[in-house]
Amino acid sequence: MLPASTMLPESVASLPKAELHLHLEGSIQPGTVCALTARRGVVVSEQEVRRRYAYQNFSEFLEAFKWVTSFLRDPQDYALITRDLAEHLLSQRVIYAEVTISIGVMLLRKQRPERKVYDQAAGLGLHRLIHAGEIGGPEKIREAVELLGAERIGHGIAAINDPALMDLLADRRIPLEICPQSNIRTGALARQLRRAGARIEDHPLAKLFRHGIPIVLSTDDPAMFHTTLLNEYEHAQKLGMTDNELLRLAQMSFDFAFERPHSRTAG
Ligand SMILES: [Zn+2]
Predict the structure, then answer these.
(1) Above 80 in pLDDT, residue 38?
(2) Closest by Cα among 230, 189, 180 to 13
(3) Ligand 1 centre and the CA of 22: distance in Å?
């Protein structure tokens, strides 16, 4: 399957990719949201979904997240959104993904996730993965690394405000899962930069990467942040990263994956 149309060089666009910071509930495209609401007898237009998917700050985003997940009621709903996400990823040549599912959403809706399943996962060796330094300060990242032994940090953009922490992440080879568009849409980057607003051009992705910190480029909640993994590579390009650096970025997502896909050239 060919990748969606993009400004990226063919060598980058056609490369098999991995996506390591991806929330299932944030990946529900507007058309799929309409299908979900229809199952509950609620007629919602795609335009209405897009309006709800536009936010000025983090709390508005959380409101939209709560609204869309209120329609996830049974296993068939999860099957629908998972299939939709898989097709979307394949269209971008994303051949490996680590997808986060929010058990909190299920508990809130009084659903009963199979705890047995959680125990089984733990028995197989759960990995330690923590969101830190997205909205909070660099001390949250340091705590995640030093107290909790995090293997990867979700976001971690607050590291730009602490040079010693940047050295530590580089020395210990602890990757940051960087989601540029998410950081703009939630206002997280503006907050870290202590400004009223921030644009993609302000993102520290290239700076963190060139400091030697491993980076896994990701989308976070692609449907809710109007982005794709290819868009994020375009953002990296816009930030001045060379084709060679983009290729290294793509490779890093495989290097820091918790499983090793059998083939990096399939697809
Ligand atoms: Zn996230």
Answers:
(1) yes
(2) 230
(3) 7
| Dihedrals phi, psi of 213, to nearest 5 degrees | -80, 130
- DSSP lists the bridge partners of residue 220 as 22
Whole-number Å distance between alpha carbons of 206 and 73: 41
Structure confidence at residue 123 as a pLDDT band (50, 70, 90): confident
Spatial distance between the Cα atoms of 212 and 15, rounded to a whole number of angstroms: 23
4 Cα–ligand 1 center, Å: 24
CA of 177 to the centre of ligand 1 (A): 9
Predicted confidence at residue 121, as pLDDT, reads 65
Q: Is 149 left (phi over 0), alpha (psi -120 to 50) or beta?
A: left
What is the distance between the alpha carbons of residues 208 and 176, in angstroms, rounded to a whole number? 9
How far apart are the CA of 41 and the centre of ligand 1, in A? 30
DSSP structure string for 13-28: HTS-EEEEEEEGGG--
Domain 10-255 has CATH 3.20.20.140: yes
Catalytic-labelled residue, pool 19, 25, 98, 134:
134
Q: Which residue's entry shows tokens 């969606």?
A: 4
Between 177 and 265, name the one with better pLDDT. Answer: 177
Residue 43 has pLDDT above 60, yes or no: yes
The encoded tokens of residue 26 equal 């944030």
129 vs 27, 100, 125, 168, 233, CA distance in Å? Answer: 20, 11, 13, 17, 23
Does residue 165 have a pLDDT over 60? yes
CA angle 123, 218, 140 (to 5 degrees): 70
**Residue 113: pLDDT band by 50, 70, 90 thresholds?**
low
Is residue 134 flagged as an active site residue?
Answer: yes
More confident of the two residues 3 and 248: 248
Q: What is the pTM of this model?
A: 0.87
